[in-house]
Amino acid sequence: MEIQSMRELIKACEKEQKTIGEMMLKMETEKSGRDKEIIIAMMEERLIKMKEAVDRGIKDDSAAPSGISGGDAVKMYDYMNQGKALSGNYISNAMAFSLATSENNARMGVIVATPTAGAAGILPGVLFSLHKNDGTPFKDLVMGLFTASMLGLVIANRSFISGAAGGCQAEVGSATAMAAGTIVELRGGTPEQAVNATAIAMKSLLGLVCDPVAGLVEVPCIKRNVIGTSIAFSAADMALAGIESQIPCDEVIGAMYRIGKDMPRTLRETALGGLATTETGKQVKERLFCRKS
Fold first, then answer.
1. CB 3.0-4.6 Å disulfide test: which of 13, 121, 228, 230 passes with 101?
2. Which segments of 62-101 are extended strands (E)?
3. What whole-number percentage of the chain has pLDDT above 70?
4. Residue ranges of the domains in the chain?
């Protein structure tokens, strides 16, 4: 079974009477020849790695080797625990957990690329927020990873997921879209609602450039992951309320592809434009990589 579009995915789910996550598991079982239990166990290992990165990050206030990131997860987690967060528990938890994961990546810790290392904070951010606030069981979070995988597979096959190919819209945009659809499915939404959430989230980040300061996946990448969790929850809420994307998800993905192709090389992970070429950005690069003669 091959699914090439979100439209095909919805039809397949309706025909098979399965969730998006279940469809992904079925496809992986057929394609790999492995037993379902083995595949689920492999995915559970990835969820555990995500949890370890979150748990480590919310306690570690040390700086990354670059000195330009680190410690913000602890600040956010403490602020949230004081009951000061304006955005409520779901989003503020997701923000803290996203920071924790992305900062762990900057410190060269183990993370799970979802779909890339540069966007690895969004999915664990929303998953473990749901776990903390809803009590969503780990076995359901594992199925959520299958949901995200299916959505990401369609996006990757129809467009791109790397900043070098299509800008940050392809990394943080794709991860946010995957997370939004996953939230919907974990909250009992239909496949069609999940796909609508995916479209709404991706539309919100079209055109986002990839301009890492000094070429490192830290500034502005880490905080963009955090913002992605907020968008994912907002898109999920809209979809669960019955709000639909006026532009079908497949067309949104197509638009992302065309925008990425039109995006200049300076704004696609080269650190030759955007924030990377601000005065402060150039000073950071000089401090880290240029030796005085």
1. 121
2. none
3. 99
4. 6-288
